[in-house]
Amino acid sequence: MNLKLWDIPAVDKVKTVELAKKCGVEPLLAALLRARGMDTPEKVSGFLGAGEFSDPFNMKDMDRASSRIRLAVDNFEHIAVYGDYDMDGLSSTSMLYTYLQDKGANVSYYIPRRDIEGYGMNMGAVDTLSKEGVDLIVTVDNGVAANKEIAYAKSLGMDVVVTDHHQPQGALPDAPLVNPHREDDESGLTYLCGAGVVLKLLMALEGDIEAVAKRYIDLAALGTVGDSVELIGENRLIVSRGLESMEKRERPGLAALLGEDPVTSTKLSFGVIPCLNSPGRIGTPDSTVRLLTHQDRESARILAEDIQEENLARKEMMDRVIEAAQEALENRPELMYDRVLVVWGEGWHHGLVGLVAGRLSELYGKPAIVLSVIDGEARGSGRSIEGFDIFRAVTECGDLLIHHGGHPMAAGLTLSPENLEEFRRRINRYAREESPEMPFPVLGLDCTLQGRALALESCRAFAPMEPFGVGNPTPAFAVMGATLADIRGFGRGNHCELTCRSGSASFKCKLFKVRPEEIPYPLGSVLDLAVNLEENYYRGSVSLSVQVRDMRLSGLDRLECLRDYRTYEKFKRGEPLLPREAERLRPDRDRLAAVYTLLPRAKGPGLGLEELVLRLEKSGLNMGMLLFGLEVLKERGLIDYRVRGNMLEAWRLPVKGRADITLSPLFRELSGLAEKDGQEKE
């Protein structure tokens, strides 16, 4: 079950109108800016202003790096750009490779295979480059931790220049190193991704900031959006100018993917970048670099079509792995009650496990780690929720791991398959000790909107805030008290279109990756909706697209529901309960009867858990009590049921005579856990 808490800041209407007048902007834009900390004209001007690029030589070692590369170009040395298989690394590779080609350099590129070589430099790749006669290796988006590989390359007669944006781990490599995270770097550009660092390198090499920006800003924007770095400072400048550049469709390969609609950061995030990332996930990443560096429009179009087909195959593969991961959780229900989900399977594609982990974290509202077991090795990826440092949690299990790395919201790891069960146990023990009460998933919203304000004019009001991304998310609004009037499927029934009424207004909105039968609310329900607004372009016409991020029953206390559900999970894990926690789970006969009466006599459409709790509130029943009560009724042979997500499939079974619920072993187990807690406190 995943119920998110909503964080909606209060709006001071007087101060909002005052800011709107001072800045000459729409009140809605002023409200959004105030919600994000821009509460003075100076802050608004600084945020909405264009800004400018700083001197690239402010970065430590930029002089050494650019001098060595210029020398290699002048002497026609063989230069190899050593990249990475994700969007940041691929765009960085394309930028530097194209620039050096334009300068007449003897240049090639090397991108390691995700499934075979993994991230970063490796000894085998260094050997390959040496055999190819490479004189200088320039890393992009990697290299800061490759001390051994760089030393080995130098022993083979090759020089190395490192450009990276990842945190240094211990001693720095013995090479010119351009990385804003160096302790001795005073540029203040720690927010740059790998492509941003390479853009600064090209500016240093060319000596003309504007000329480089004009030629390469689109590729730098791809890497910046794709790497999910904060859109502040020069990142915001890179993306805003990059979007303007992409509108010209001057780069053939990119133009083939963009189509004719206006280019936005959202279009890049959810359309173009996943497509460009697909070869690096399930195929050969070289094809993305070929597309981004291609000059012939017709052959670029053909290559783009191949990549789009590969992306469709990636989506289908990912759906299968998500389904297999959910089945693995359902086959071992105890896994679902863990604080940190850990699930693994044989032969799942290594390039997909991170995406699947993110999807499971979203579905279940908790940190998730997904691993694939191939050739006697378990490799995986984890994704977290705000408030739980998954990298630290993985690091605490370091003695079980072969490799690991990451940051608070994501981690990668490799271990032996025989250590999987122990790893799952240990990381959950750490979570229990570090976060006895795990953080709840929270959805941040900007403000509330009336139904009549869901219009194109609202989209256009906040357009000056573009580009959107990390640190400046697409505005999200709460529409309170909307009545659900209709539900229809689209996209082969895998998505929903909802018709809702709010006051005198009626509007349609879309809910993706949810089938109509998975909507946990009946028609006529009064809902609060969390939505994004976008302009939709189709055959030359423009319309409003309302996309649902989340929805909840009006009047239901979600925080209380989540707390009671966490108590139920605690019971399922067999952990001691406080007496008051046990009471929140223990239904009496009348409450069980109220649950039983609401269930159908035969298996049919699912019921929404929130809807049931709201209907049973008058009986004094809560979410934890409902779930515990369902178990008791099933144990006594009165019902059968299954919970998936926020939906309950439950039905009554034929029963002869009366079943005495007071004889339930579950009641005794619940009492035992509460007594155990009391004994421990004594």
How are the elements arranged and paired?
Layout: E1 5-7, H1 13-23, H2 27-35, H3 41-48, H4 62-74, E2 78-82, H5 87-102, E3 106-110, H6 123-131, E4 136-140, H7 147-155, E5 159-163, E6 177-178, H8 194-206, H9 209-226, H10 233-247, H11 252-258, H12 265-282, H13 286-293, H14 297-331, H15 333-336, E7 341-346, H16 353-364, E8 368-374, E9 377-383, H17 390-395, E10 401-407, E11 410-415, H18 420-434, E12 442-444, E13 447-448, H19 456-461, E14 477-490, E15 495-502, E16 505-511, E17 526-538, E18 541-553, H20 558-572, H21 579-585, H22 589-598, E19 607-608, H23 609-616, H24 623-635, E20 639-644, E21 647-652, H25 665-681
Parallel strand pairs: 1-12, 2-3, 2-4, 4-5, 5-6, 7-8, 13-14
Antiparallel strand pairs: 8-9, 9-11, 10-11, 14-15, 14-17, 15-16, 17-18, 19-21, 20-21
What keywords describe this structure?
six-stranded mixed beta sheet; single chain; 682 residues; 21 strands; alpha/beta
Report on this structure.
With 682 residues, the chain is an alpha/beta fold. 44% of the residues lie in helices and 19% in strands. The chain has 25 helices and 21 strands. The strands form five sheets. Strands 13, 14, 15, 16, 17 and 18 form a six-stranded mixed sheet that branches. A hairpin with a 2-residue loop joins strand 8 and strand 9 (377-383). The longest helix is centred in the middle third of the chain and has 35 residues, at 297-331. The two termini are 35 Å apart. The mean pLDDT is 92.
